[in-house]
Amino acid sequence: MLGVWTTEQVRAAEDRLLARTPDGALMRKAAFGVATVAAAMLRDLTGGTAGRRVTLLVGAGNNGGDALWAGATLARRAVAVTAVLLSPDRAHVEGLAAFRKAGGRVAADLGDPDLVIDGIVGLSARGPLRPAAAALVERVEVPILAVDLPSGVDPDTGAVDGPAVRADVTVTFGARKPVHVLNTAHCGEVRLVDLGLAPELPDPDLITLEADDVGFAWRVPGPSDDKYTQGVTGIAAGSSTYPGAAVLSTGAAVLATSGMVRYAGWAADHVRDRWPEVVATGTVEDAGRVQAWVVGPGLGTGQTGRDVLTAVFSDGVPTCVDADGITLLAATPALWDARDPDAPVVLTPHAGEFARIAEPLGITLGADRVAAARALAKRLDAVVLLKGNATVVAAPDGRTLVNAATSSWLATAGSGDVLTGLIGALLASGLDPWLAAGCAAWLHVRSAELAAHDAPVPASLIQQAIPAAIRAARNLVADGPVKP
Ligand SMILES: NC(=O)C1=CN([C@@H]2O[C@H](COP(=O)(O)OP(=O)(O)OC[C@H]3O[C@@H](n4cnc5c(N)ncnc54)[C@H](O)[C@@H]3O)[C@@H](O)[C@H]2O)[C@@H](O)CC1
Ligand SMILES: Nc1ncnc2c1ncn2[C@@H]1O[C@H](COP(=O)(O)OP(=O)(O)O)[C@@H](O)[C@H]1O
Ligand SMILES: [K+]
């Protein structure tokens, strides 16, 4: 489990650490980390470091200071380092002096570098790159190493509202900040330099699950288990228009549990044909006992859908509501009345569904996706899994995790149905609903990665990779503390 801290939390922790650290020591440690990664990148790119060319883009604050100190280290290793000062009068004084002393050169233009280091702006960044910086960044044709975070991207929300650096590698310090999990597309690979900040950090604002967390959470059947004791998943999905959603959701649950899966709905024959192990019936009332329901994928938004949702809620078990289920709740909030207040609900909206259900409640999906998901989770007393390249999972009590995609191959029709089946199986196994949603999101991304191999992949093949993704998680089982 990795922790993620807001810029405010990091600043406060840094201030406490700075108070007991010699002047400049932290910056030099941070910069040394940047120089080490830059040297490794140069070796990968060009086969060596001596005589290779690096250009620093240097802003007005300490982020520019980091870049200048890193440039000084590189220059001492015979790298030809050039600094472009975006605010020459405000460039970090000690950093610039060290840089010049080490043989670094100040220039007005990019030159012809092998690598660019982005020290334009860091933790204090607000808004997109300003025009002069944007013009320089636009002309970069070589890999970029971002210092702390890619400039132009909001540190706390990962939002981009204009020109911004798209880095290949981001070297951050002390603790991960929200941008590092909310916008991996602009950060590239994120490397963390340890500054000894951990003792000063409060509980993290966000967490991100790693393989071992998912493996640890996985319920493994024991000698006294049978098909019922491991949790039975119920799927209420599909319609004559969308039988495929039922097949995909049910199949994902089948592949993610060694217990039992029941299906209730119009597509019973389709489901049985594809998944003979499923106990399929026409209605929720006839389905028999389950420990969790999935309701919504391909259900339709008419009276049948309303009746199904009501029947599922009346069962009083943990329920994942997706797709048409969310649309139904948005259009007819009275459907919530059938919910047992003690039974957890997980909602899995994409951006459009989120707007549908949240806007009437006065919650808008703006740049701060974490805040929006948290607000909706609290308002509805439900876990909210907001889909996207970075999936945000917020619990009503404020616990929030982010699951970053490793590619965008998941953005394919039917992949959401696979996710809901995974969530259903994990809810039925008795896992905490927030963790169930988070583990499902992790497995979903991992399944897509295993199935896609850098090529388009249909949802049914993502589904087939679920066992391999579970194996990947379970190979690494070990419980551990939250790491910075
Ligand atoms: N505080 C510490 O102990 C440490 C800080 N470190 C570095 O210090 C950075 C933070 O430094 P600062 O607080 O000086 O601030 P920054 O270097 O992030 O920003 C400096 C100034 O840039 C301007 N600016 C804001 N948005 C801009 C934009 N979009 N385009 C152009 N200019 C913009 C602002 O006027 C801001 O004050 C961190 O990101 C990290 O790189 C590291 O050296 C590690 C130790
Ligand atoms: N750009 C993207 N990168 C990575 N994952 C994405 C991206 N866009 C969507 N996804 C993921 O793909 C899935 C799509 O789900 P959904 O929108 O419900 O599709 P469908 O209804 O067709 O199943 C979600 O899990 C979402 O997080
Ligand atoms: K930066």
Automatic annotation (TrEMBL):
Residues 210-477 form the YjeF C-terminal domain. Its EC number is 4.2.1.136, 5.1.99.6. The keyword Metal-binding applies. The keyword Ligase does not apply. Binds 1 potassium ion per subunit. AMP binds at residues 387-391, 416. GO terms for molecular function: ADP-dependent NAD(P)H-hydrate dehydratase activity; ATP binding; kinase activity; metal ion binding; NAD(P)HX epimerase activity. Keywords: ATP-binding, Isomerase, Kinase, Lyase, Metal-binding, Multifunctional enzyme, NAD, NADP, Nucleotide-binding, Potassium, Transferase. Its cofactor is Mg(2+); K(+). It comes from the Bacteria. It holds the Pfam family Carb_kinase. It catalyses: (6R)-NADHX = (6S)-NADHX; (6S)-NADPHX + ADP = AMP + phosphate + NADPH + H(+); (6S)-NADHX + ADP = AMP + phosphate + NADH + H(+); (6R)-NADPHX = (6S)-NADPHX. InterPro entries: Carbohydrate_kinase_pred_CS, CARKD, Nnr, Ribokinase-like, YjeF_N_dom, YjeF_N_dom_sf. K(+) binds at residues 63, 118, 151. Residues 10-203 form the YjeF N-terminal domain. One of its GO terms (biological process) is nicotinamide nucleotide metabolic process. Gene3D superfamilies: 3.40.1190.20, YjeF N-terminal domain. (6S)-NADPHX binds at residues 62-66, 122-128, 148, 245, 298, 350, 417. PANTHER family: ATP-DEPENDENT (S)-NAD(P)H-HYDRATE DEHYDRATASE (PTHR12592:SF0), ATP-DEPENDENT (S)-NAD(P)H-HYDRATE DEHYDRATASE FAMILY MEMBER (PTHR12592). Belongs to the NnrE/AIBP family. Catalyzes the dehydration of the S-form of NAD(P)HX at the expense of ADP, which is converted to AMP. Together with NAD(P)HX epimerase, which catalyzes the epimerization of the S- and R-forms, the enzyme allows the repair of both epimers of NAD(P)HX, a damaged form of NAD(P)H that is a result of enzymatic or heat-dependent hydration. Catalyzes the epimerization of the S- and R-forms of NAD(P)HX, a damaged form of NAD(P)H that is a result of enzymatic or heat-dependent hydration. This is a prerequisite for the S-specific NAD(P)H-hydrate dehydratase to allow the repair of both epimers of NAD(P)HX. Homotetramer. This is Bifunctional NAD(P)H-hydrate repair enzyme. It comes from Actinophytocola algeriensis.
